[in-house]
Amino acid sequence: MSLKVQNHRAWWLVLPVFLLVGFTAIVPLMTVVNYSIQDIFDQDNAFFVGAEWYREILNDPRLQGALVRQFIFSGVVLLIEIPLGILVALMMPTKGRMAAVVLVLMAMPLLIPWNVVGTIWQIYGRADIGLLGSFLNGMGFDYNYASDPTDAWLTVVAMDVWHWTSLVALLCYSGLRAIPEDYYQAAKIDRASSWAIFRYIQLPKLRNVLVIAVLLRFMDSFMIYAEPFVLTGGGPGNATSFLSQTLTKMAVGQFDLGPAAAFSIVYFLIVLLVSWLFFTTITHLDKQR
Amino acid sequence: MNKRKIIGITIYLVFILLPIYWLILMSLKSNEEILGQLSYWPQNLSFDNYRSIFSDPSWYMGYLNSMVYVVMNVIITLLTALPAAYAFSRYHFLGDKQLFFWLLTNKMAPPAVFLLPFFQLYSSIGLFDTHIAVALAHCLFSVPLAVWILEGFMSGVPREIDETAYIDGYSFPRFFIKIFLPMIRSGIGVTAFFSFMFSWVELLMARTLTSVEAKPIGAIMTRTVGAAGVDWGLLAAAGVLTIVPGCLVIWFVRNHIAKGFALGRV
Questions:
Q1: Mutation site, A116, A212, A286, interface B, largest B CB count within 10 A
Q2: C-beta of residue A44 within 8 angstroms of C-beta of residue A263
Q3: Positive or negative torsion for Cα A91, A96, A100, A102
Q4: What is the pTM of this model?
Q5: Reported ipTM
Q6: What is the pLDDT of residue A166?
């Protein structure tokens, strides 16, 4: 790879993006920060409360529980989807009509609005009228996502894997296609094993797309809302109620704008921190090499 | 292609397609049949659900609205993200690393509380309930994502290619369009598809920023949940129809995704 040149005029190329994103991003963020430090009764009656909402949020056991569940969920989902996505990308046909057909079929789950995804699995998983539920019960499992917390949790994980593995696979597939044929020919001459080809040619070339895939999947799984909300409504008990749902309950249901805004900011900072740690670690490892 | 790969990909496709088959099946049944008993194909095949969507303007206008703002979003995203990604992949400039990461942070804010300020912002500039408002709001996540994906592909292209082109007397715009963009076709294909997809399935912002004129299909679908319960068949039919445009998009960009580039070509 090549070294970058110092050139401050490159800012002109970035400026449109900066203005476009900044326009939508900055004002709302400031507004939410503003909510989070005030107690708002109506438009003319708002009192400065400082860090009070933050203190309240951080000591709330409901939120702490949701946070733990959220981390476990995101971790499990990433551990399944990333390796599976790479594997699928390696297995996909590379040329011809089949390649196109497989691409289209694979992308289907990604194109369904998220609330419909929940609806599909709601029916699909039911023991009386759904394929998955009746199959599992026919196999002798006592499966019922509506009453058993473990089943509910596993169904949400399965739904997420079904929904999002194709995203990882598509990214990796396009990354693999960007590897020049010469590399494979050189490997053939060296009689490299297929594992060696994967480890020393394909995986390093997938580095960029994998960073994006991990970050994307982390952020989206950490903010998952519509699918479990439609499927289980967060239950049974609290088994599948994640952070977003707790937040929405607070913001819309109870209309506690102050605490909800403080919660949003904390939420945002957690996602930011984890992503930043991951990204810096990866860049750091690159430099060491 | 060896056998193991074919078996593996087939298993994955079955896993992907079974719930989709169930969705299509639901869309071809009446509600009584969906909730009544387990059946692997429709007992009384009926296209009533589809008929009611195609005969009602308030339904099919939703698809058109969604399509209009999604296309706007993809165009704006690609036009702005391509030069920016090039800058990030080729140059060091003041604050480049910070700016690069900041872009992605915009995808990290939990939407529930941010919706109200978004609504206020777009109302105050008079864009509420227009397609362009949703397209611009969706740039919040589609542009950073596009910059990140494209930057990855662009830094895979050796710098010598740029330099050779400049020595050969190419101007920057001509080099960028004629030589550079064709080399990262697969990246552009993927980026276009992702911008399309995330904008297509995003619901919260689109619903908040519209009321009548630009109401997206996702918001119209929530009508199927009424006081009398859920109209499963209609919801499923609407769901099936939301998959179709995306499949067309991926069919069009398939060659760009599937085609690699050979180093020896330039």
A1: A116
A2: no
A3: negative
A4: 0.88
A5: 0.86
A6: 93
CA distance B88 to B96: 7
Burial (0-12, 13-18, 19+ Cβ within 10 Å), A50: exposed
Q: 3-class DSSP state for residue A89?
A: helix
A46 Ramachandran zone, left/alpha/beta (phi>0; psi -120 to 50): beta
Nearest-10 Cα torsion for A144, A147, A152, A155? 20
**Three-class DSSP category at B41:** coil
Number of H helices, E strands in chain A: 13, 3
Tell me: pLDDT of A169 over 90: yes
pLDDT digits (tens, 9 = 90+) for A203-212: 888 888 898 8
Whether residue A3 has pLDDT greater than 70: no
Q: Is A96 left (phi over 0), alpha (psi -120 to 50) or beta?
A: left
Phi, psi of A5 (to 5 degrees): -100, 145
B109: Cα separation from own chain's centroid: 19
Q: Is B9 close to A92, i.e. CB distance below 8 A?
A: yes
For chains A and B, CB pairs below 8 A equal: 305
Calculate ∠ Cα B198-B229-A237, nearest 5°. 75
- Identify which of B240, B244, B224 has the alpha carbon closest to the alpha carbon of residue B20: B240
Tell me, yes or no, if A276 comes closer than 8 A to chain B by beta carbon: yes
Close Cβ partners of B56 (under 8 Å, ≥ 6 residues apart): none
Chain A hits for B1, Cβ within 8 Å = 93
From the list B16, B221, B262, the residue facing A109 with the nearest CB is B16
Phi then psi for B57, rounded to 5 degrees? -55, -35
Q: Specify the pairing of strand B225-226 against strand B229-230.
A: antiparallel
Amino acid letter, residue B70: V
pLDDT band for position A40 (cuts 50, 70, 90):
confident
Which one-letter amino acid corresponds to residue A54?
Y
